[in-house]
Design brief:
The chain has 316 residues and is an alpha/beta fold. It is 42% helix and 15% strand. The termini are far apart.
């Protein structure tokens, strides 16, 4: 299967594909469309890549037609960013439903101090939650306790609290077993954005082992080297360490991703080459470098380009 096959066979997406996605979401609002793709394959190497974007549009300004356009262009997952946008990036039920109906995985990133909130975002419709800026194994362990419902009788103060989960027909799952049985598609995404997680192989591998222990495709990773460099200055080995991280994760069956592109890498050919490098080393969750709020400007530039080229050809 190719990357286009994962989108329904064509890009831009056809109306029939949107109808299929909306139907699947109505039947099961707790579905995770990215995990569905990952679960089809026996290894990271076989899995086609999926494209995502970080969303900096405040929850009270996002529009249904914008979200539809993101999916139509071929995006599969969106990180709603409440780390740096704080409350403006913490998406609620209606906003997550907009994304879910068009088949986008809603990944809710929270600030680095958050713990129990990671489990609570699932009640708002997010199907994945992202923890930034970890430096120790203990932080990752606490994160996954907050993400997962505990085994009855084995809970700690950090475990996710119980809360009724709705089925597609709006009935509730009220018992511990039904809660655990209904929320099987949620994911915990860990950001690797410190030297401790990227360069220190001992810490890196212990975190990856913990992620593997969550079960198939229940944990994903995402690399953000900017914070590592900001904290510690120039790290000459950072790119080689990222490639090694992807390979180590792939061997454990963990899907990893990263942003490809930046303000200093705008050339499409260079971006394509670096995506190839990431894919060859095992990354499967590729992220574009513009934010969602940049797409309005980029679209406007694309639409106006023929006019200015024509005017120039005519001497104006």
């Amino acid at each position: 299967m190719t990357a286009l096959d994962c989108l329904g066979g064509q890009r831009p997406l056809a109306t029939e594909e949107f109808a299929r996605r909306a139907h699947a979401y109505a039947l099961n609002p707790n579905r995770n469309p990215v995990k569905e793709v990952l679960d089809r394959y026996g290894s990271v190497e076989e899995t086609p890549p999926l494209l995502g974007i970080f969303n900096d549009v405040p929850w009270y300004q996002v529009r249904d037609d914008e979200v539809h356009a993101w999916a139509k262009a071929g995006l599969s997952w969106v990180v709603n960013d409440a780390e740096h946008l704080q409350r403006e990036g913490w998406y609620g039920r209606q906003q997550n439903a907009m994304e879910g109906r068009v088949g986008l995985l809603q990944v809710q990133r929270l600030h680095r101090e958050a713990f129990s909130a990671h489990g609570d975002v699932f009640q708002l419709g997010a199907r994945a939650t992202m923890k930034p800026y970890g430096t120790t194994l203990e932080e990752a362990e606490r994160f996954y306790r907050a993400v997962n419902f505990p085994t009855p009788g084995e809970a700690t103060r950090d475990d996710r609290g119980g809360y009724p989960v709705r089925y597609g027909d709006r009935k509730f799952a009220f018992t511990p077993d039904s809660l655990r049985g209904q929320e099987t598609e949620t994911q915990g995404w860990v950001q690797f954005e410190t030297a401790e997680y990227i360069v220190d192989r001992e810490v890196r591998d212990r975190v990856l082992d913990l992620m593997q222990a969550q079960g198939p495709n229940k944990a994903c990773g995402f690399v953000g080297p900017f914070d590592a460099i900001l904290r510690q200055g120039e790290i000459p080995e950072i790119e080689a360490a990222i490639d090694a991280l992807f390979r180590a994760a792939s061997r454990r069956g963990i899907h990893m991703g990263r942003v490809v592109g930046s303000g200093s890498m705008e050339d499409p050919g260079e971006i394509e080459d670096n995506i190839v490098r990431a894919l060859e080393n095992g990354a499967r969750l590729i992220c574009v470098h513009p934010f969602t709020s940049d797409l309005v400007f980029r679209g406007a530039m694309n639409v106006t380009e023929p006019f200015f080229k024509a005017a120039e050809r005519c001497g104006f």
